[in-house]
Amino acid sequence: MPCYDFRKSPRNNIPAVESEADGTSRSEAANGKGVAKRNTSRSVDVLPVPRATLRGSSNRTEEKLETMALAAPSSLRRLPTTPPQARSPPAASLRCSRPMRERRLRLRQPLVAAAAAAAAPLAASSSPADTERRKHELLRLVQETRRGFATGPEQRAAIEEAVVAVEELGAGEGVPLDLAALDGTWRLCYTSASDVLVLFEAAERLPLLQVGQIYQKFECKDQSDGGIVRNVVRWSIKNLLEDQEGATLLVSAKFDVLSKRNIFLQFEEVAVENIKISEQLQALIAPAILPRSFLSLQILQFIKTFRAQVPVSGPERRSPGGLYYLSYLDCDMLLGRSVGGGGVFIFTRAQPLL
């Protein structure tokens, strides 16, 4: 590294340049070539130095400084670990860049789509074709079950799933019960209620007893908060009454609308009516080959008009009742659940009873 000796030369007051290599003075530059003129102030004139010499001297200086830094104690070392451009940005620049925001949006899109699909209303899936398909599948499953009596656990579970699939359509969900649509006669296609299955079990054990069609007849067309419901059971005794419809068991009840889908039944009476004797019994009472007497005619008329009723309510006893949930209702299908007692009911629209 060249060092400048600013001791004045005794000859021309020009600082002599001493080389590190040979220690010789370069006084030849004192002739005035390329020398900067001194100011009137006490400034020192500087001789020009070759660039190669300066470049080599700067490299050696950096090596010496690096050697000194490594030789210093560890507590005094303060070497930068990261370059200035890699340091943490200021607080104002902590905002998400545009590529990062776009990446987050791309990652969020599947989640948003899944949430929208889960929260989407069922109106899209409850098209008329889909509604009819679900109802048809439900009726197909209950077709060979003998109205619920001849079902196994697996078949009953499949029917329950089909019932829930129809209930999910939510016809009238959140809307007050349409009593005008409920009014009419409904035929039982399937049930899991024990109080109805016991009738089928009795008919299975008693060879002479036959259980025919079962209906629910609602009378509430011009009502706003309730009406009357009649459970109609057609039954018969073999060889004595007409097949399947020899007599009618009628259970009448009043119902009140408690909420949008719940009604409360209050039973009033149980009656047996519409007895239709078989032709064999008619021939026994009044033989066709003999003229019918007045007595025989009176007996036949009495049997036809016979009606036995037993009231189940009165001033001294409380009428039994039950809560009934109408889970689905449209123009040709009615689904209901007995609350508390359990059991599901599947009805289809039927012709009015005479």
Automatic annotation (TrEMBL):
The keyword Plastid applies. Residues 133-347 form the Plastid lipid-associated protein/fibrillin conserved domain. Its main location: plastid. The keyword Lyase does not apply. Signal peptide: none annotated. Residues 1-43 are annotated as: Disordered. InterPro entries: PAP (IPR039633), PAP/fibrillin_dom (IPR006843). Keywords: Plastid, Transit peptide. It is found in: Plastid. This is Plastid lipid-associated protein/fibrillin conserved domain-containing protein. One of its GO terms (cellular component) is plastid. Pfam families: PAP_fibrillin. PANTHER family: PLASTID-LIPID-ASSOCIATED PROTEIN 4, CHLOROPLASTIC-RELATED.
